[in-house]
Amino acid sequence: MKWRRIPAGPLGTNCYVVWNQENNCLIFDPGGDEQIIKAFIKKNNLNPKAILLTHAHFDHIGALEEIRSTYQIPAFVHEKEAKWLLDPALNGSQFFQMGVIRCRPADDFITKEGSQNFGGITLEILETPGHSPGSVSFYFEEGGFVISGDALFLGSIGRTDLPGGDHKQLIKSIHDKLLSLPEDTIVLSGHGEETTIIQEMDHNPFLNGF
């Protein structure tokens, strides 16, 4: 299992492309700069199968429609954020003066945790709310990495001052769902560089005591 981090959009949000030996790929959080994302897919002869969203804040969905339309693939978001794609007030684009974003509804919804297969690629869905009500992380046991969205960062955690944010819930999500993963698991965050579970257990100042 291979992955590539592609910083995109006005906030440099990390879009991730993950692919298998058959070159089937999944696209996570296409936040903008769709031409860069599409160029990478073309250069590597990848076959997109689905778009998966860790959550539906504006900086994670800026290129959603372009990518979805280009490849005619389904987009998935947690059911708790079903309305966020359509509503600039919920996805935050209304407040940050970077352009209002309205997307079509998701093609399907994430409703539970557990192992799921998308286009021949198996991953485990972990519900990690706190940054937003429907935040999820995607764990690839075979590849030894987890896409954590805006839950856990290198030396930091997600903000919780946006609508639906809950600091205590976020800390619990990180402790119960992410820090319980193997210590050498690579954490692919929504912003910034990758880290590891053991690195954050030992050095993240927001996780003291864990």
TrEMBL record:
Whether Phosphoprotein counts among this entry's keywords is: no
Where does the Metallo-beta-lactamase domain lie?
12-191
UniProt-recorded name of the protein: MBL fold metallo-hydrolase
Q: Name one Pfam family in it.
A: Lactamase_B
Q: Give the classification, highest ranks.
A: Bacteria, Bacillati, Bacillota, Bacilli, Bacillales
Q: Which SUPFAM superfamilies match?
A: Metallo-hydrolase/oxidoreductase
Superkingdom assignment = Bacteria
Cofactor(s) listed in the protein's UniProt record: Zn(2+)
